[in-house]
Each structure stands twice: as C-alpha cells, then as structure tokens.
Design goal:
7 helices, about 190 residues, six-stranded parallel sheet
Length: about 190
C-alpha cells in the first residue's frame, strides 16, 4: 500500500520552504509520495490576495515537475466551498480501493489548533499525521502529545511565508532566491503580486 502525505495550503505562491518541507517528508519519513493539495479558499482566510486556483496549481506544478515523488492535486477545486479537510479525505477515500493510505502533513502551529478543526477526532482515528517543526506561540494539547497517530518529523525549520514574499515583491524587493526558478519565471511573466 502506497502511503501518501497530503500537504494542504493555498501556495500563494509556492516557495522554496514548501519544497524543502515536502521533499524532506518524502525522503526522511515512511511516506511514498507527497501531494500538494491546493486549497481554493480556506474557511479561516479572506480571499482578496488569493490568486486564481489554476494559476496557483500551475505554479505548484512548475515547482515540482522535476521531483518524481511530489504531485500537485486539484481535488479541492471540485468540492463545495467552504470546504473542510474531513470532506477532502472522504472524497479521496471514495475512489480509493485501499491501494493508497492518506496521511496529513501539518506544521506544529496547525497541530496547536487542530482541536478546532471540523471532525478532528475522526481525522485522527483514520489517518496518520506527520508534523514538521514551526516556531509558533501556544502549546500542543496534552491529548496530541505522544499520540500513536501523530509523528513528529525532524524537518528543517522554514520561517518563510508566502505573505512575506508577496509583500516584498510588491515593494520591488528581489525575492527570486525564495522561489523555485520556474515559479519566479511564471510569476514574473504573469506580473503577479505587483
């Protein structure tokens, strides 16, 4: 059975930090593949600075095309909005004949608020969660510490955000080094985030 790590995000834009995390997860854990699940609209985020779904998909696709264990997924584009992770997982399981095992990849900051997620207990009951370190305030709930379904992966701490990149790009700063070349080229060509 193939073990798939689902890495959710708006990837607005995808940057080298995302790539480092995803690649680390697939190379240094028991995951066989990592799928970037591009979220159309998070119930927790406003949409004004969000690029069109297909442009964000295209940037993820461009960023990972030379990484055979990484994939871009449009699965959430087809689901009613606002969507929740539990629905995406149910949708993926629907067409799965048991040949794939879906796991979640999340930053430590998300684990701290995981108890607020819709049906988080059902997610935890049915899926492994791989957590990468993040510098963030707050504490991880006691019930999630040493949980058999939660694996902490000692990935590099990446303090790089898409928000920072968009903001600095708009100010005319050179942010090229923070993005995979193909993403920078696409962004530049399309004149995004200026």
């Amino acid at each position: 059975m193939k073990r798939i790590g689902l890495y959710f995000g708006t990837f607005n834009p995808i940057h080298v930090g995302h790539l480092v995390i995803a690649n680390h997860m697939v190379e240094f854990s028991d995951l066989d593949e990592v799928w970037f699940v591009i979220t159309p609209q998070s119930p927790f985020k406003t949409k004004k600075s969000l690029l069109d779904n297909n442009h964000r998909y295209q940037m993820v696709y461009e960023a990972i095309k030379n990484y055979p264990k990484l994939r871009a997924s449009k699965i959430e584009f087809e689901l009613p909005q606002p969507n929740y992770t539990i629905n995406t997982l149910a949708h993926l399981e629907e067409g799965n004949e048991g040949s794939l095992e879906f796991c979640l990849i999340m930053g430590e900051d998300n684990l701290k608020s995981f108890h607020k997620w819709k049906n988080y207990d059902v997610i935890l009951e049915n899926h492994q969660i791989y957590v990468y370190p993040r510098i963030s305030k707050g504490a991880i709930a006691e019930k999630f510490k040493d949980h058999p379904k939660i694996t902490a992966v000692d990935a590099p701490i990446m303090e790089l955000s898409s928000t920072f990149i968009r903001k600095q790009h708009k100010l005319g700063k050179d942010i090229k080094a923070m993005l995979p070349d193909a993403v920078w080229n696409y962004m530049d060509e399309m004149n995004f985030y200026r």
